[in-house]
Every structure is written in C-alpha cells, then in structure tokens.
Design goal:
The complex is a heterodimer of chains A (112) and B (110). Chain A is mainly β and 112 residues long. Chain A has no helices and 11 strands. The model of chain B has no long low-confidence stretch (mean pLDDT 95). The chains are: A mainly beta (112), B mainly beta (110).
Chain lengths: 112, 110
C-alpha cells in the first residue's frame, strides 16, 4: 500500500511569485487536508477537500487555494508569495473527512 | 476559544528514564484526541487516537491516556530512537477539524 506522497520536496521562490504543491493521497482515501507548519510550531490547518469539494477552511487568505482531482490527489496553490509563507507544507489523507489523518513527508518552501 | 496546550516544550531524559508528556485541551465537544510523532523536517507519524475519558492505548514503550481535560503520553524506559517532537491534536465533533498543540521536543541521551 502506497502512503501519502508530496512533491516537490524542497522549493525556493521569491516574493510575489506563485507556487503549486502536489499531494497524492493514500489508496482508498477520499479526503485530503493541507497544513502549514512554521519551525517549532504545530501544524496550522489551511483547508480540507472531501470528494473534490472544499470541506472546511482555516484562517488563511484567499491567495491560498486548492483543488482535488477525481483520483483524490490534490494541489495547493499560493499566489503573491510573502516571506512569512516560508514553512513546511504538509498534506494528510484520510478514509473520510472525520477519520484519522496520515501525513506525507512535506514540502519545504523557502521564500526569499 | 478552542485550544490545545502541550507541556513541557522540551524534555531531556537519560536512556531508560521514564516520564510523561502532557496535552491539555479546551474544546466544546471532543470527538477524538490524536498523538503523532514528528522527526525533524518530516511529516507527522500517527501514533494513537483516544475517544473517551478513561481510554488507554499502548504501543511499544508508549502509552496514551485520556481524561476530560487532558491527555498524557507516558514513555517507559525510552531509547535514543524515541527522540522526536510529539504532537497532540484534538478533533471537534462539530466540524472535524484538528486543533494542534505546539508539540513537546523529547531528547533521549544515551
């Protein structure tokens, strides 16, 4: 059974650019949640997708947007990057929106 | 406001020295409490889910317990490979979102 995968592993962007992060959910999972984790802090919930629909959103501005595809993989898009967007971005998949979440290895984004 | 507080922020132990990590929470309705382990630069690894006060779960040297206001992660005779940050998250019964603590960084010295 393949676990949650994320790409790319690392990414360096400059302020004002746009970025797309990708996540493949675990086999059989229909829900993907995205988190931002700053150094030394717990993950902060960005949003969740359940069966291709947004199913909850945290306190993040609209320049953070996402998609979930029919195969339940997902993308996180961030426009107009700011220095504070530098963080580890985590994707987690679950069998259902209420079920235990299993995380991928994360994408380290650095904004210069 | 719903919140999760973990203590201590960091804990240094000698190999074999047992201890406990604390996760206290305030939430209107608890559906579940989750413990994860996170190694530096990696994604969190699921450990346990607890659903009701009095519940206990064990895995190797780890045991998690739950009361109505807090959870403990007990570590018995730890080894250096247990060194990691341990994260606690609570899931509300209204919207199923996870609310996370900041974690406890555990260092086990040989």
């Amino acid at each position: 059974e393949t676990g949650v995968t994320q790409s790319p592993t690392h990414l360096i962007k400059t302020r004002g650019q746009q970025v797309t992060l990708r996540c493949s959910s675990q086999s059989g999972h229909n829900t993907v949640s995205w988190y931002q984790q700053a150094l030394g802090q717990g993950p902060q919930f960005i949003f969740q997708y359940y069966r291709e629909e947004e199913n909850g959103r945290g306190n993040f501005p609209p320049r953070f947007s996402g998609l979930q595809f029919p195969n339940y993989s997902s993308e996180l898009n961030v426009n107009a990057l700011e220095l504070d967007d530098s963080a580890l971005y985590l994707c987690a998949s679950s069998l259902d929106f209420s079920d235990t979440q299993y995380f991928g290895p994360g994408t380290r984004l650095t904004v210069l | 406001e719903d919140q999760v507080t973990q203590s201590p922020e960091a804990l240094r132990l000698q190999e074999g020295e047992s201890s406990s990590l604390n996760c206290s929470y305030t939430v209107s309705g608890l559906r579940g409490l989750f413990w994860y382990r996170q190694d530096p630069g990696k994604g969190p690894e699921f450990l346990f889910t607890l659903y009701s006060a009095g519940e206990e779960k064990e895995k190797e040297r780890l045991k998690a317990t739950l009361t109505k206001k807090e959870s403990f992660l007990h570590i018995t005779a730890p080894k250096p490979e247990d060194s990691a940050t341990y994260l606690c998250a609570v899931q509300e019964d209204s919207n199923y979102q996870l609310i996370w603590g900041a974690g406890t960084k555990l260092i086990i010295k040989p």
